[in-house]
Amino acid sequence: xxxxxxxxxxxxxxxxxVTVKVITEDGTSGLGDATLNGRELAVVSYLExxxxxxxxxxxxxxxxxxxxxxxxxxYWQNGAVSxxxxxxxxxxxxDIKGKLANMPVYQLLGGKSRKGVTVYGHANxxxxxxxxxxxxxxxxxxxxxxxLQCALPNTKGTYGxxxxxxxxxxxxxxxxxxxxxxxxxTKYMNFIPELFKQAREKFGYDIHLCHDVHSRLxxxxxxxxxKLLEPYKxxxxxxxxxxxxxxxxxxxxxxxNTPLATGEKFNTxxxxxxxxxxxxxxxxxxxxxxxxxLTPLKKLADFAALYHVRTAPHGAPxxxxxxxxxxxxxxxxxxxxxxxxxxxxxxxxxxxxxxYKIELKEGLLYMNDQPGWGIEFDEKAAKKYPYKxxxxxxxxxxDGTLWNW
Length: 405
Ligand code: KDG
Ligand code: MG
Description:
The protein is of the alpha/beta class. It has 14 helices and 18 strands. The chain has helices at residues 40-55, 63-71, 80-101, 105-109, 128-140, 168-171, 185-203, 219-229, 247-255, 269-277, 294-305, 321-333, 348-353, 379-383; strands spanning 3-11, 17-24, 29-33, 117-125, 145-150, 180-183, 208-212, 236-238, 260-262, 283-284, 310-311, 340-341, 354-356, 358-361, 364-367, 375-377, 394-397, 402-403. The strands form four sheets. Strands 4, 5, 7, 8, 9, 10, 11, 12, 14 and 15 form a ten-stranded mixed β-sheet that branches. Helix 5 packs across helix 7. The longest helix has 22 residues, at 80-101. The protein is globular and about 60 Å long. It starts with a strand and ends with a strand.
């Protein structure tokens, strides 16, 4: 089944998304997500200038060989841009294989391991009160897990909050230059335990709670924070420290039993290997789009299972709904699946471009059993929403020093 054409679309129905469509000689098409927030066009060039010409005429069924060809064959194996490009092609080929087999992709992996996908929502707020009001809404809506992020008092726009905006739609796709924010580790460390204390006092321990530090602490600071949070029994603390120095997780591990999650920036299995093998983490958060597609992600899940590490794919809304549907299949299959981040794409513009169906019941997500990923892309609708350059924010310490994102 020869690959006849590969189309790449960039659109901004609220946020920038890069979508790859691989078309075979019989007219079957498959979708992949190549979105890399803030560096979208670099991935487009990598695909158009360097990947597509090598794939026309190849057998779309040979997913593993194409993956190895693009990864090893490039000589420059690693890097977020190249892996996002390879990941999108890989996803599109799995979509095609599912359609040709007339099966949802999870069937090709070995079938479902569960009836639905447990998700966690985001309760963000400019104050503890607002964050807890949002948490209450999630609990009332049946969620089993929620991430809490709260702006520090007297600062604007601590990561994970909305910088005064109502939703991601207003926030993202709307930053033509990186906004700069101020970060104070001391204020943060003094404040966050209070957020979780009040959450537990008000809502008890039935709801799972988690929090994303976004790698803004050193290992010993993170150890102290995780220790302070122990009484509030978090599901996990995410990205407590940067993963460039994996041993940082060893230090945290030695100090606390708060579970640890990381990996949304992992590009390869090798990025995750040491942390998993040493059991320094509990959840690996690698996304299909940023980890090279389904082909390496299923290997990562199996490897992680050997060490009691669960999967929890990155599910920020700056990954496209194509990624989200890909994760649905992966999550339904992976025996060691933990939880899926789910913020939703609920804007009319995004739902006009990406056509798919999911249903949330009692904190679990369900989908239709369509062949492939079960998502379509409306090319005509996408044209209405041209690319807009947009960046993630930059952080500086109070004295002006550039800090971790
Ligand atoms: O592009 C970066 C975002 O996807 C990231 O900031 C979101 O950390 C994130 C998360 O856990 O959702
Ligand atoms: Mg994160």
